[in-house]
Amino acid sequence: MRSAYDVLLERGFIAQATHEEEIKELLSKEKISFYIGFDATANSLTAGHFLTIMAMAHMQRAGHRPIALIGGGTTRIGDPSGKSDMRQMLTSEQIDANAANFKVQLSNLIDFSDGKAIMVDNADWLLKLNYVDFIREIGVHFSVNRMLTAECYKSRLEKGLSFLEFNYMLLQSYDFLELNQRYDCVMQMGGNDQWSNILGGVELIRRKEQKPAFGLTFNLLTTSEGVKMGKTEKGALWLDKERTSPYEFFQYWRNIEDVKVKECLALLTFLPMEEVNRLGALEGAEINQAKEVLAYEITALIHGKEEAQKALETTKALFGGGAKLENVPQTQMDKTLFETGMNLLDLLLQAQLIPSKSEGRRNVQQGGVRVNDVQITDVEYHITKKDFNEDGEMMIRKGKKVHHMIKI
Q1: Angle at CA 71, nearest 5°, toward 214 and 153?
Q2: CA–CA distance, 384 with 144 (Å, rounded to integer)
Q3: Cβ(349)–Cβ(399) below 8 Å
Q4: pLDDT by residue (tens digit) across 10-35?
Q5: What is the rounded CA–CA span in Å between residue 324 and residue 313?
């Protein structure tokens, strides 16, 4: 049987490893416990988290035990890695509610039955720490000079780095130590932006416990221009269907850049690599077949096959016909609003199809907005009852990708 390292490497996950040869041997000969952390900063995980969850699932399939660490404690501090500003402070109630939602979403891909995986919250130990004891026992192992050279801190020094955030690396490193002592966890995994923090934990265990510990990071999902994937006009691409509908989720992956299709098929689906390579090699109009497979597979993993099928049928209805349109995102509005007419820009704003009127004005003037498949270029255009069909429905299309139904 191939090792988990071989699988992750072939599918394009691995960015950096602390002790590559030792990790290869370890994963091929032993079954280990490893962890990935998730700070509870929102009430849902995002597409960015999805990649690390897939890596966790591949590890579990190879017989290793995942530990999903919910950051109930570290969320109260804020990780400066990859952030230009300090994290917004959340209440304890908000953090606890977010963590509860994470547990449900993680369970869709990770099997937590019979001890095959465990889920813990670092609030269980971080909130009980005595600060003086912590600094004496843990802080002594960290060099401030070296910490300041870490990318997660270096990029923030000009704008300002609070001492609160400066503690984050110590706390995350302490998490690894606690998990090592409690559950014999020997490896931390995470996105490549976590490299500095992961190194801190690995070195802490090796110095303090005189035991082997390892770190492995994954390539981040980015566009061809190096921008993180998973961002939409409405913000993040959420795994919660109340925040990003299954149809919108499907459409995001259906419309990614051609050059990213093979990479996403390898990282975000369980399709065999032979099929990934076949689909990734399609060119021209045929690449759309690969995109449909990609969107279906990812949506099925997150929202189930039924929702994925609905999204697929809706897409076919919009781009060539036949199926019902009930799964298109829609906004219900009072019909009295259209008796004298509503300005198109106001409608787009109310339906959350534009972030501002100035952007909406540009979209309209450039011919990017259609009402019932009729291009509208007049920014003063008013929507009235005559724009709705007998069922009280009107379809708005923005650009080539965004379809939205208004119902009265």
Answers
A1: 65
A2: 65
A3: no
A4: 999 999 999 999 999 999 999 999 99
A5: 8
pTM over 0.85: no
Q: What is the pLDDT of residue 78?
A: 55
